[in-house]
Design brief:
single chain, mainly alpha, Ammonium transporter fold
């Protein structure tokens, strides 16, 4: 066992866990005050339910070596026999690190469906989604056929961001728009809270990306720099276009742009260097901002822009990796701009399309089944009352 590598992976696991309450604050500040506890609860609840499912069966189905390229096996059910799974770090350190990925991925969906989901039905949704969607996709990307095909995903551009972004779209289509959407203002109730959440996400993303090196080495150091620079330029790119198009550079735009840059660099973090993270972050900030127009045109009520930031940002990063991958940083593959030809770009495209199609189809089926049985969406009176009182009998603020 390498104690330095072990310490870094354990620290990174803690950083990634901290991202989930950071996400709760990020989203929570953007909803109306009567829904804020509902948003916070949906996010922190994922820490309880998904962690349990991961320990019982999820880890085994993703990283059980006796399976095939499509799904693992039950060798590690209830975390049985994981002592020496990953070389010079304890197996349990790897379990913990990957657990935090599994936790935050379904939580990302909540930003698109804000103000509308029954809490009990949300619990069913993310439980089923974690097993039926996240587990097989994580297997393919991190330990299965997509990895074997040659597609790269350092820390989850396809497995996490494209996956959750497409799933968010599917659930939004099933539950429909918020009542009053497009007819009455629904402004963020607490942007300082959103900025706090942005800071926690930016901080935790260091562990998210650099921890994926699974070692305290040069690739991890490169991933730290790449992650920070992509967030910085993602913010600048978003604000520049926002200023040109709307006349103002907003606090919400700064937060959204930084997260867009973080999303896009996630698949690339340990594979690119030099000016590449600056370019990737800027492209993400610009393209994710422009993607906001899609939901308006399609009349999708993606409340907090999960589709524009996570789906589009994930696709941008996944495809740009096919251009900017550099074997002087990591000896995996060279991208098109570094003499590697079109092969990696083709594999990245296939990975993005397959993950997106699978996630949409299965998520839509899960959401539709819940909606037609126990009901996924709250009723009209509960929606006007707010999630806080109707679902939890609590209020975030007192008069």
């Amino acid at each position: 066992m390498d104690t330095g590598n072990t310490a870094w992976v354990l620290t990174s696991a803690a950083l990634v866990l901290f991202m989930t309450p950071g996400l709760a604050f990020f989203y929570g500040g953007m909803v109306r005050s009567k829904h804020v506890l509902g948003m916070l609860m949906q996010n922190i609840f994922a820490m309880g339910l998904v962690s349990t499912l991961w320990a019982v069966v999820g880890f085994s189905l993703v990283f059980g070596d006796g399976g095939n390229g499509w799904i693992g096996n039950f060798d590690h059910l209830f975390l049985w026999d994981v002592t020496d799974l990953d070389g010079d770090i304890p197996g349990m350190a790897f379990v913990a690190f990957q657990m935090m990925f599994a936790v935050i991925t379904p939580a990302l969906i909540t930003g698109a469906t804000a103000d509308r989901l029954k809490f009990s039905s949300y619990a069913i949704l993310i439980g089923l989604w974690s097993i039926l969607v996240y587990v097989p996709v994580a297997k393919w990307v991190f330990n299965g056929w997509i990895l074997d095909m040659g597609a790269l995903d350092f820390a989850g551009g396809t497995a996490i961001h494209i996956n959750a972004g497409v799933a968010a779209l599917a659930v939004v289509i099933v539950v429909g728009n918020r009542r009053g959407h497009g007819k009455e203002p629904m402004p963020p109730h607490n942007l300082p809270q959103t900025v706090l959440g942005t800071g926690i996400l930016w901080f935790g993303w260091i562990g998210f990306n650099a921890g994926s090196a699974l070692a305290a080495n040069g690739i991890a150091a490169q991933a730290v720099v790449n992650t920070h620079l992509a967030a910085a330029t993602g913010m600048l790119g978003w604000l520049l276009v926002e200023k040109v198009k709307s006349g103002h550079a907003t606090t919400l735009g700064a937060a959204s742009g930084a997260v867009a840059g973080l999303v896009a660099i996630t698949p690339c973090a340990g594979f690119v260097g030099g000016a590449s993270p600056l370019i990737i972050g800027t492209a993400a900030g610009v393209l994710c901002y422009l993607a906001l127009a899609i939901k308006e045109k399609m009349n999708w009520d993606d409340s907090l822009d999960v589709i524009a930031v996570h789906l589009v940002g994930g696709v941008v990063g996944t495809l740009l990796l096919g251009l900017f991958a550099d074997t002087t940083v990591n000896d995996a593959f060279d991208g098109l701009f570094y003499g590697g030809g079109l092969e990696l770009l083709k594999d990245q495209f296939v990975a993005a399309v397959v993950v997106g199609a699978f996630s949409f189809a299965v998520t839509f089926a899960i959401a539709k089944s819940i909606q037609t049985t126990v009901g996924l969406r709250i009723d009209e009176d509960a929606e006007y009352q707010g999630l806080d009182q109707s679902q939890h009998a609590e209020s975030a603020y007192t008069a």
